[in-house]
Amino acid sequence: MNARSLALQAMSIARVPGVAIVLVVLCATFGLTSPGFATPANIANILTQSTILLLLALPMTVIIMTEGLDLSMGAVLTFASIVFAVTVLTTGSPVLAFLAALTVGFCFGLWNGVLIAVLDIPPFITTLGTLGIAQGLSLLVTDGQSVVGIPHSIQSIYSGTVAGIPLPVIIAALAYCGTHTLLYHTRFGTYVFALGGNREALKVAGISVRGLLIRTYVFGGLMVGFAALLMTARLNSAHPTAGIGMEFDAIAAVAVGGTSFERGNGWLLGTLLGVIAVGVLRNGLNLLAVQSSAQVACIGALVIIALFIDGLRAEP
Amino acid sequence: MSVATNMLVRSRLALSRDGMQAFYRLLAAALLCAVLAALSDVFLTMNNIFNVLRQTALLFLMASGLTLVILTAGLDLSVGANIGLSACLAATIIKAVGSPMLGVATGIGCGALIGLANGILVTALRIPSFIATYGVMWILAGITYYYMAGDTIHGFPPGFRQLGSGYLFGVPMPVYVMVVFLLIGTLFAQRTVWGQQIYAIGANSIAARLSGVPVERRLILVYTVSGAMAGLASLIVLARINSAQGDIGEELTLPAIAAVLVGGTSLFGGYGTVAGTLIGALILTLVLNGMNLLQINSSWQPLVTGIIILLAVWIDTRTRRIGE
Fold it and tell me: Rounded to whole angstroms, how far apart are CA atoms A113 and A200?
């Protein structure tokens, strides 16, 4: 085991308490306050509902590790979901529709990547502009209406099970393993770690930072395509506001998971726990009949607290 | 050449560069007007011109405080959500107490407090501004929706409504508010030590700190001012549309950021003027108003605003690169 991976592991262990404490506190609070929380059915529910978020939070972790950000994920997710629904309605082919959703994700990822890497536009403003574009496209295609009448077979992608395990959980597990391999066992992942730490060093070493950034955002776009499949199947429809704000939950999960916004070191397992923490928070507040608007405020507060802790860690 | 002459020449050059850029932007605005006048019969009617002026004033008020934030190389994504909460609270007070003055104080006070919170997050907690204000945006949206629970508050006293829909000497009231804050903003940024310190922070915050600029206090100031201006803008919206809803400011954040950037303020800090933002607000209003007049589906508006933001930042990035 070399020094770098040792150092990485040491950093990971140092972070365990933060997100784990959040998770334990949340579970204990809701377990005590609402009787329906700690039931097997509800726990399965939380895991299934967290899958879409995980598909967004995984690439968001990688993107934030490159000192970037993707504010357009929710809007692109919405548009991809609409394209999926419209395609399946016009062609009747779920496969074609899925490919269309992936293409939408790919194109927006490429667009973000090129603007950020080639034109040097800061990520947050690039993706803010893209957010406007994707939102506008969603409204234009649907005219503000829901797209309904999707065949029921699509729904089974979300509600189906394989060997008793919900299908979305299997998809999310595969996505997690894939991202883990990408980040920790490929050259791409090593470069991502290096990029967040020291961009200049990577350039001097002769590695194309531009190509790396473009691939990172394209990866994000493709994952959004997968998430669009799950979201459309879950809602059994597509709506021009369905995914708005999802990027915020994803950023929250990444922040709670201990990935740093300024120093570019990330921790994928932390993101997984962060996603579950956000899922638990939403579920618990739901059980306590807290309105979804107030839930958003709670998640916002969670992010600020997580970033505050992140800031404290940066101090020494 | 002595240092003093050198500096004088440099400031002259900078002045002429600023002057040319402002000229090009005004030219763009004039061209937009000409195109719209040619395409639409309604554009040059008194009614529509007042409409454009009122909308420009609203956008400028939001964007002027935001300009100061962006001058420090920060960003305030919470202005739209700030308008929402400030407007709803001000509306509640006006309805409950019946005093427009108290309502105005509530709106501006609420906005300033939100701005102060942003400032503290950015300075004391050292959270990057776009993330901190993005989090605050969602917190505010959540609180506002929770507070309003889908309700609408409407019907305000005529005295208050004057602020948004009234006229003085035949000119809409918001225009006067706009002119006053254009003067205050310009004087503050260009002619006061604090204003110059804000430019210094944006140009190089480390150098500014080493030169004795109290960076944290100035940053808290600019975020508070940005919040207070959003609070003021919320009152104008409230007085004009005569009702308050939870989503009142939602669609205003992107245009406000676009107005600052189109007005020539650099996203990377240290360069730009409040007056430039006025031209930016005018250009953006003309585009959005024009789309309305030409009966283009309003769904195009976020898309067009997004593209305008990207174009403005791209030009900014290129200019900087040439400068280097």
Answer: 19
Whether residue A14 is contained in a domain is answered as no
**Amino acid B226: pLDDT:** 95
Residue type, A57: A
What's the domain count of chain A? 1
Domains and CATH numbers, chain B: 56-317 (1.10.3470)
Confidence of residue A37 (pLDDT cuts 50, 70, 90): confident
Question: pTM for the full model?
Answer: 0.85
User: Which residues of A sit within 8 Å Cβ distance of B?
Assistant: 69, 71, 115, 119-122, 124-126, 128-133, 135-137, 139-140, 143-144, 245, 248, 251, 261-262, 291, 293-301, 303-304, 307-308, 311, 314
Q: Measured between alpha carbons, how far is A44 from A54 in angstroms, rounded to an integer?
A: 15
- Per-residue pLDDT at A1: 47
Cross-chain residue pair B309–A132, CB shorter than 8 Å: yes
Of B125, B305, B306, the CB nearest to A311: B125
Q: What is the DSSP string of A173-202?
A: HHHHHHHHHHHHSSHHHHHHHHHHH-HHHH
In a domain, A2, yes or no: no
- Check CB contact under 8 Å for B143 and A140: no
pLDDT in tens, B165-179: 878 888 888 899 999
- Asked, for residue A52, whether it belongs to a domain, the answer is yes
Domain containing A98 equals: 41-243
| Residue B171 main-chain phi, psi, to 5 deg | -115, 140
B260–A contact, CB cutoff 8 A: no
A125 vs B98: CA distance, rounded Å: 42
How far is it, in rounded angstroms, from Cα A49 to Cα B170? Answer: 58
- Report how far apart, in Å, the C-alpha atoms of B156 and of each of A96, B102, B144, B159, B169 are: 54, 13, 20, 8, 23
Q: In this structure, which amino acid lies at residue B229?
A: M
Q: What is the pLDDT of residues A140-175, one digit of tens each?
A: 898 888 888 888 888 888 888 888 888 899 999 999
Chain A, nearest residue to B296 by Cα: A140
Identify which of A74, A215, A177 has the alpha carbon closest to the alpha carbon of residue B138.
A74
Coil, strand or helix at B171: strand
A272 assigned to some structural domain: no
CB atoms near residue A214 (< 10 Å): 20
Whether residue B230 contacts residue B111, with contact meaning beta carbons closer than 8 Å, is answered with yes
Question: Number of helices and strands (H, E) in chain B?
Answer: 13, 4
> Tokens for B297?
């589906």
Distance from CA of A77 to the nearest CA of B (A): 16
Residues A9, A10, A11, A15, CA torsion sign = positive
Angle between helices B46-71 and B193-203 in degrees, nearest 10:
70
Tell me what pLDDT residue B128 has. Answer: 83
Task: Give A-chain residues touching B310 at CB under 8 angstroms.
Answer: 115, 121, 125-126, 129-130
Mean pLDDT across chain B, nearest whole number? 87
Q: pLDDT: is A15 or A104 the higher one?
A: A104
- Find how far residue B28's CA is from the centre of its chain: 20
Low-confidence ranges of chain B (pLDDT < 50): 1-3
Q: pLDDT tens across A38-83, in order?
A: 888 888 888 888 999 999 999 999 999 988 999 999 999 999 999 9
